[in-house]
Amino acid sequence: MIHRYARKEAAAIWDSAMKYKIWFEIEAHAATKMAELGVIPTEAAEILWEKGKDAAFDADRIDEIERTVKHDVIAFLTHVSEIVGPEARFLHQGMTSSDVLDTCFAVQLQKSADLLIEDVDLVLAALKKRALEHKLTPTVGRSHGIHAEPVTFGLKLAGYYAEFTRARKRLVVAREEISTCAISGAVGTFANVSPEVEAYVAEKMGLEVEPVSTQVIPRDRHAAYFAALGVVASSIERLATEIRHLQRTEVLEVEEFFSPGQKGSSAMPHKRNPVLTENLTGLARLVRSAVVPAMENVALWHERDISHSSVERGIAPDATIHLDFALRRLAGVIDNLLIYPDNMQKNIDRLGGLVHSQRVMLAMTQKGMSREDSYSAVQRNAMKVWRGEGNFLDFLAADEDVSKFFTREQLEPFFNLDYHTKHVDTIFARVFGA
């Protein structure tokens, strides 16, 4: 985790205090059910809760014990016994370390997903607000980075809104898939612990039981979770890249908010750089870097091995914390984005009407000219405009092939921007509802 890119709410899910709190709850809930089943004394389970529920587990002490025992869960249980006393011997009856670790991991990933879903909701709210503001603000659409045909800036943002709506759905599905509990003992056979204990712990921790745990929760669930995070990160990068391109000096259709006192360069006082969206591009790369390791964790040996552990200790906090930060930053960028409609119009006009070439071509085919001939007639006049020789409408009106079908006055309506925005309401209704 890079602290520079971490919000305390997301980081807290992965700190030692939270981890040990969850570990204790798993162990204590299991003990409660074991007492109900007569496996351990009821009084022992009550004492475990009484002495442990509000305990401040000492991470330094646990680390000290682990340096000797070389096992994190054993170190934790040893420390709990120092706090609880003799009744601690009834903890972990028939359980294995993975029962605690994997169930805790599920809770942490679930909590992280809840936070990420809240973050996406902020992004969606910002996108909807700005899309509605600029629903009919004309701008040029680009394909291959080159001017294509007019769109509206609101329509651009509506597309991103639809994409982040899909992102939210993916996170909801990923949360559901990761929310399973395993309290099945060594190699997952329940030989020394009842399935009733697992069901009880799952209910108390807000999870479902894992159908077949083999001692560990299968890692295809985790792979799907991190894949979902990777797709969300890519959606962030796509929007960030759009903003970065549109902020280029020669385009300047939008711009990140530049606060009073902000500096853009240590060398060039005039600079106003898209540093926030550049940062988002980098964070997206970091989040996506978790996807392949998560996929590689799926193929564990037999019932289990521990090769996944070191990977997950790194990628889980990093990916969730950085994605949380990125989504919050993106929401702020959108909310405060400076939008320049006049520059958008100037860029539409920059090519002297070429953005209307398709409409002219189609009109000529409807008058009887072949598509090949109409394409050639429109293209040869368009190329003159590309070379800076004049205005598209003027060239078309003077072209003998075009003038057979249209006078200049008849050509002029083909250059109306409203033609390209006539179905914006329909698209908005699809995205935002009627």
Automatic annotation (TrEMBL):
UniProt KW keywords: Lyase, Purine biosynthesis
Gene3D superfamilies noted in UniProt: Fumarase/aspartase (C-terminal domain), Fumarase/aspartase (Central domain), Fumarase/aspartase (N-terminal domain)
EC number annotated for this UniProt entry: 4.3.2.2
Entry superkingdom: Bacteria
Reaction(s) catalysed (UniProt annotation): N(6)-(1,2-dicarboxyethyl)-AMP = fumarate + AMP; (2S)-2-[5-amino-1-(5-phospho-beta-D-ribosyl)imidazole-4-carboxamido]succinate = 5-amino-1-(5-phospho-beta-D-ribosyl)imidazole-4-carboxamide + fumarate
Record GO biological process: 'de novo' AMP biosynthetic process; 'de novo' IMP biosynthetic process
Name by which UniProt lists this protein: Adenylosuccinate lyase
Matching SUPFAM superfamilies: L-aspartase-like
NCBIfam families named in the record: purB
InterPro entries (alphabetical): AdenyloSucc_lyase_C, Fumarase/histidase_N, Fumarate_lyase_CS, Fumarate_lyase_fam, Fumarate_lyase_N, L-Aspartase-like, Pur_lyase
SMART domains per UniProt: ADSL_C
One Pfam family recorded for the sequence: Lyase_1
Annotated ranges, domain Adenylosuccinate lyase C-terminal: 352-432
Organism whose genome encodes this protein: Asticcacaulis benevestitus DSM 16100 = ATCC BAA-896
Protein family per UniProt: Belongs to the lyase 1 family. Adenylosuccinate lyase subfamily.
Pathway recorded for this protein: Purine metabolism; AMP biosynthesis via de novo pathway; AMP from IMP: step 2/2; Purine metabolism; IMP biosynthesis via de novo pathway; 5-amino-1-(5-phospho-D-ribosyl)imidazole-4-carboxamide from 5-amino-1-(5-phospho-D-ribosyl)imidazole-4-carboxylate: step 2/2
Any GO MF annotation of the entry: N6-(1,2-dicarboxyethyl)AMP AMP-lyase (fumarate-forming) activity
Example of a GO cellular component annotation carried by this entry: cytosol
